[in-house]
Amino acid sequence: MKIELAEHYGFCYGVKRAIEIAQEHPNSATFGPIIHNIDEINRLDRDYNVGLVEDVEEALKYDTLIIRTHGITRDNLKILKKEGKKVINATCPYVTKPQQIVADMSQKGYAIVIFGDKNHPEIKGVASYSKDAERTYVVLKESELIGKALGTKVAIVAQTTRKPEDFKKIVSFLTTRVAELRVFNTICNATFENQDAAADLAKRADIMIVIGGKNSSNTKQLFLIASSYCKDSYHIENENELKKEWFEGKNLCGISAGASTPDWIIKRVIKKIEELTK
Amino acid sequence: MKIELAEHYGFCYGVKRAIEIAQEHPNSATFGPIIHNIDEINRLDRDYNVGLVEDVEEALKYDTLIIRTHGITRDNLKILKKEGKKVINATCPYVTKPQQIVADMSQKGYAIVIFGDKNHPEIKGVASYSKDAERTYVVLKESELIGKALGTKVAIVAQTTRKPEDFKKIVSFLTTRVAELRVFNTICNATFENQDAAADLAKRADIMIVIGGKNSSNTKQLFLIASSYCKDSYHIENENELKKEWFEGKNLCGISAGASTPDWIIKRVIKKIEELTK
């Protein structure tokens, strides 16, 4: 039985990096959950004494604070620094970039359009870097820009997880409404890479195991894609769900995992498959 | 009988300005035809001794050369200046702008995309201002950009007379292919202004007279728009085609004119209508 991992799976680059940074800074706390996986948060707490705080008030109880991939608002960062906290920045570089673009472009007199969800922590952080809050618009649809004071120069960025097709609609709307539009494509393609890699592997595999929370929408999407190419596809949360009979008569077992599935869960699944099929 | 001109009609701002400049510089020649109307070119020749040359060789026979609205290539401009000619620049400001943008952006390391017809004099001129000819692409469709070395930073401008909808398609294509796209909407809306104004007037008029060459596509378009709102619409080239009976029982006569129709032809038409209806 051959076991093959998809070329891209599980954590994106930014989350992997943030967890490594957290492990390098024990006895600290992350500002907001570092990942949407309670097992992983518990592991960091248990093995590294990395806690979790939800707001500035709680944060002040710790000496060292880790900024998660989503980043943080400029005001909160100022408070932490003013209070003499050691701040470890694990903001994803793909999120730091729109923060810098918004700071730079607003400084240069461009009105700012941010395509994203104004309640999402990543977007709260990005928007906070604007030096012209009155001409900074966070929108999900182009219609929200109608009647807004845009001026002649606009810069636009996107939330990293948005769909390119929706971004294009807003760009298209703005193209003929301002003299100059600076489009910064800050969408990260990690999600699409996982999906493409799952499809590529499912085309060749006899059985596909997709690992991730049963409620995780990106894992469900991966499972749907795998199923469409490989009828013997299974969506599991951990190794206990595996059944020996699934693997009978199969030669190649493909594996993919959702964006919040830690590697140690994936490794346990692989080990269990090896035991079941040896 | 009330006669009313559309709010926008005939020559655009750039052509009006160029003709005024030509009249202020008698005993010269325009580099290429200043307008697509032979009557107007003949008038400038007859009344102001403003000739017409088609290339640099011919141009060298004159002391004073007038650059028409479309502009001129940088190389040709250099030759004229090197030869000590007096160069009068009547390039439309809406064309000077993309020339400057292309010079500036190529200098700053952006690849250049020009949405336009590579054989059109305006576009030849605009493209000649790029400082990176190898990374300057003149295209009419986004498919022409496939496989081109664009790099991470691209600036795009458009030929002044192109349709915004087609420009948006190319912008959309580039949006997700480069890290930064600078979109300069250099499309001039003079054509659309004439059309909108003709429609507004035709809605109220009892008769519409649209003046312009029978082969002029923009005049035909104006006539179509006028006809759709006012059934008694007529497309004429000059005052000799007017018929007294058209105006019987009418109260309001609306007038529009194509982009190459000189004011003096429009004035003659108005005068004739007044005579026919008094």
Topology (SSEs and partners):
Two copies of one chain form a homodimer.
Chain A: E1 2-5, H1 13-23, E2 28-31, H2 38-48, E3 50-53, H3 56-59, E4 64-67, H4 74-82, E5 86-89, H5 93-107, E6 111-115, H6 121-128, E7 136-139, E8 153-158, H7 164-175, E9 180-184, H8 190-204, E10 207-211, H9 217-229, E11 233-236, E12 252-257, H10 263-277
Parallel strand pairs in A: 1-12, 2-3, 2-4, 4-5, 6-7, 6-8, 8-9, 10-11, 10-12
Kindly state the percentage of residues in helix of chain A: 40-55%
Low-confidence stretches of chain A: none
Oligomeric state of the chains? Answer: homodimer
The biggest sheet of chain A amounts to: 4 strands, parallel
Largest interface, counted by CB within 8 Å of the partner chain's CB: A-B, 16 and 16 residues
**Chain-averaged pLDDT of chain A:** 95
Q: How far is the N terminus from the C terminus of chain A?
A: 8 Å
If you had to describe this structure to a student in words, what would you say it looks like?
Chain A is flat and about 65 Å long. With 278 residues, chain A is an alpha/beta fold. Chain A has helices at 13-23, 38-48, 56-59, 74-82, 93-107, 121-128, 164-175, 190-204, 217-229, 263-277; strands spanning 2-5, 28-31, 50-53, 64-67, 86-89, 111-115, 136-139, 153-158, 180-184, 207-211, 233-236, 252-257. The interface between A and B is medium-sized, with 16 and 16 residues. Strand 9 of chain A pairs antiparallel with strand 9 of chain B, so a sheet runs across the interface.
